[in-house]
Amino acid sequence: MTVAYRVALPVPLPTLFDYLPPAEGSAAPGSRVLVPFGRGKAVGIVVETGVESSVGANKLKRVARVMDDGPLLDAELMATLAWAADYWLGAPGEAYANALPLALREDKPLPDTRDEAWGLTPAGQSALDARSRKGGSLRLLEALAAGPLGANELHDRLPEWRDAGRRLASAGLIERVALEAMRAPAGQPPALSEEQVHAVEEISKSLGAYQPFLLDGVTGSGKTEVYLALIERVLAQGKQALLLVPEIGLAPQTVRRLRDRLGVAVEVLHSNLAEGERARAWLRARNGEARVVLGTRSAVFTPLPHAGIVIVDEEHDSAYKQQEGFRYHARDLALLRARRLGVPVLLGSATPSLESLANVDAGRYRSLHLRARPGSIRAPMVQIVDMRMQRLDHGLSPALLGAVADTIARGEQVLVFRNRRGYAPVLLCHQCGWHAECPRCEHPMTLHAGRRQLICHHCDLHARVPEACPACGATDLKPQGQGTERLEEALTARFPDVPVLRIDRETTRRRDAFEELLGQLHEGAPAILVGTQMLAKGHDLPNLTLVAIVGVDEGLHSVDFRASERLAQLVVQVAGRAGRASKPGRVLLQTHHPEHPLLRQLLAQGYGAAARELLIERRSVQLPPYHHQVLLRADSHQREFVDAFLQEAQAALAHTGLTLLGPMPAPMPLRAGRHRGQLLIESDSRAALHASLLPWQRSLASMPSARRVRWSLDVDPVDL
Ligand code: ADP
Ligand code: ZN
Ligand code: ZN
């Protein structure tokens, strides 16, 4: 037996690696070490020291160097990560790699985390007075005219300030200065409603102990105000708050709100940050300098030595699930962390996930409600528009177009929601029935008329639009169905005097383009917005009074068992965009299935009742959240390889008593030229599932058939 260090390395294998202790110094668990790996060196995290390795001393390599004086990951994070790697059947090394910003996974000294602030030097003041600089440099000098500014603020005002900053600093015109971290809070909180006060009080009672809460509040009911009030209390106790949001799109407005209100350092962590910035923000949280951390999925790994509360906004959002590598769910990980940290965790949503509602039923979460909207904001009225037997204009019914016209005439704004980009989802030959299909996915390609291209939304293959049908030569090619681009065209033709703005991934490729478009709408002039999911969330447009939802019927007939839940959430979230100010909102839902029970119930009784119904259904057919699922996926250029691997994997589970479905083709059996298959494993006991799957997972990699496929395991998959 040899006494060794057990180290996590960023490789997709379900193992840790043993090394002899370093020749010099020692490292505690959570510290980074440099170790020989393969032909080179790798940065690893010490998971355990003093382990008895079953590998002989002569075979073990030695830790080359200890990188940190103390642990970078504290005991809480280390324990959470070990648990998480087991739970999500991930490679431990990948779990640790997710927790650590990329810049900290390199063999470099830790970056300086001092608050970065810049001010003018006397020479800089003269340069400003003389206007001796131009362009970005001049703008930066002007920005600093009133006094020094922090890097965050500079970034907000002049996103491109870094280049100018370097030039001016080397010319001695600006310099790094100390900036007092605290600013006086500027924003005044509104007087909270009774429901808000109740929620804040209930949660406050749990400060200092683990307790999950579900804050179930309709859109615009003031959930964010509840978060702010709680964060204020946590800050007053000298503690930290972590607030997760599903997308960066929501971050800028929330950051502004937090900074205005709280007057403390708010760190923002998301995947669009430069790696250096991310590492510094992470370290500031670890040092306790960052008091409030706001971020997307991966921010759930931020160290919180003085944790006070963890909040997950829009907890139902599937963006919290990582879909590659280490497939964790940030909401579930947030709960795990809160438990170990001994702090309350607050999940907020207008449309809570069925998982969370089931947890409330089971007594694991406490639920709090915000039923009223503050002030005079009235909940929108939702109506179904029956499309059957209607004469449609590019998929839009007369009733819907009439409502758009009325709204515009009143000087108000309209949102037409369609969750599909492009001009039309299918290009069809009216002579022979041929349609444009992606050869690599065997799925229809979407017509993008403006770009004159057919694009596969599954593998991003681009192709020219054919002049004539490749099968029969006819020139009778017709787009079928509507995407946002086609709706934009149809509405522009109908309402030539009103701006029609399309908001989807295509029109908002640049980050500021989205903000710009929204800025225009804030001014309140009549306009028609056409958009996808991007518009469903959190954007307050006070003059938006009509929301028209088109093309939901696909969601009513999907094979995915989560489709109904998603559709209900989407409809309610989009509807919530209507009528946020004092003007009443109206929502039209256009469908061919006006009698569909889900739609009926959603409209008559709201999301809560519809969700209850869905839960009953899930229980009776033994689906999550009552049954637990793990999905083994595999793909390869050859179908036989996929089948062989999945069969071998299945055989290895035959004796376990778990329910096995498959091997079967994936819902998209071919994607980007690769054949895809899956094996679904189910059990009503999470413990039984994991007891069998942990050893099985370790054996998968060594199966001979595994070498010819790409495979992955997904615990609690959200996309089957
Ligand atoms: P949610 O997060 O539930 O969508 P917000 O907290 O963003 O709701 O609140 C919606 C709007 O109502 C915001 O403009 C907010 O400033 C305002 N608001 C929230 N609570 C109150 C209150 N108690 N009094 C007045 N206005 C409020
Ligand atoms: Zn044809
Ligand atoms: Zn494709």
Question: Can you summarize this structure?
Answer:
The chain is built from 21 helices and 32 strands.
Commentary on this structure:
The chain is of the alpha/beta class and 720 residues long. It is 32% helix and 23% strand. It contains 21 helices and 32 strands. The protein has a seven-stranded parallel β-sheet, with helices on both faces. A six-stranded parallel β-sheet has the order 16-28-27-17-26-25, sandwiched between helices. A five-stranded antiparallel β-sheet has the order 2-1-4-3-5. Helix 15 links the parallel strand 25 and strand 26 (528-531). The longest helix is centred in the last third of the chain and has 15 residues, at 686-700. The chain is globular. The two termini are 45 Å apart. The model has no long low-confidence stretch (mean pLDDT 89). One zinc ion binds at residues 438, 440-441, 456, 458-459, 461, 672. Residues 204-370 form the Helicase ATP-binding domain. It catalyses: ATP + H2O = ADP + phosphate + H(+); Couples ATP hydrolysis with the unwinding of duplex DNA by translocating in the 3'-5' direction.
